[in-house]
Amino acid sequence: MIKSYRGLLPDAGQDTIPLHTNDGKTGYKVVKLQIIDNIPGNAPGAVDPEFVCKIYKVKQTAVDGVIDFNDGTLLGAAYYQGGNISTETPTSTIIFDNEIFNQDIYVTMNEGAGGATTCNYYIELEQVKLTEDQALIAIVKNLRNEQ
């Protein structure tokens, strides 16, 4: 089963997507991540917006635009650069891990030098049934990440 989540985040914003269960036997993996400016084509006089959206396994204490795939808590990242409506096409780059997790995830948004201050995100997660051993492994990984 595929579950979808969407939201609108301001610059340096963070959303929690509650996924935890009492037994931990329901796992998820990211199958789609998309972001788009909330004012496509930009407002008149605005500069091209740039956004970095990231999905984490742990709540972030600070939201930034740095993408570091050495970070074991990072599940995915998307970069979006809007274009001037008359001369440029918006571009985006999306990369996500196929890791299975069974706890809440956190979506962050950071705006670079741009005109708009909020950005939409859309995430699709594939729901996976976990065995007791797989659930325990996922929980232990999550505990390690929180330290």
Report on this structure.
- The chain has 147 residues and is mainly beta.
- It has a single domain, classed as Sandwich (Jelly Rolls), CATH 2.60.120.
- The protein contains one helix and eight strands, in the order ββββββββα.
- It has one helix at 132-146, and strands spanning 2-10, 13-17, 26-37, 50-56, 74-81, 91-96, 105-111, 118-129.
Helix percentage: 10-25%
Q: Report the sheet with the most strands, covering strand number, pairing sense and barrel closure.
A: 5 strands, antiparallel
Order of helices and strands: EEEEEEEEH
Strand content: 35-45%
CATH class: Mainly Beta
Q: What's the Cα radius of gyration? A: 16 Å
Parts with pLDDT < 50 across at least 5 consecutive residues: none
Provide the CATH architecture.
Sandwich
Please tally the β strands and state the result. Answer: 8
Q: Could you say what the CATH topology is called?
A: Jelly Rolls
Total domain modules? 1
Mean pLDDT: 86
Fold blueprint:
Layout: E1 2-10, E2 13-17, E3 26-37, E4 50-56, E5 74-81, E6 91-96, E7 105-111, E8 118-129, H1 132-146
Antiparallel strand pairs: 1-8, 2-7, 3-8, 4-5, 4-7, 5-6
Could you give a short description of this structure?
Helix content is 10%, strand content 45%. By secondary structure, it is mainly beta. It has one domain (2-146): Jelly Rolls, CATH 2.60.120.
Features:
3-stranded antiparallel sheet; mainly beta; 8 strands; Jelly Rolls; 45% strand; 5-stranded antiparallel sheet; 147 residues
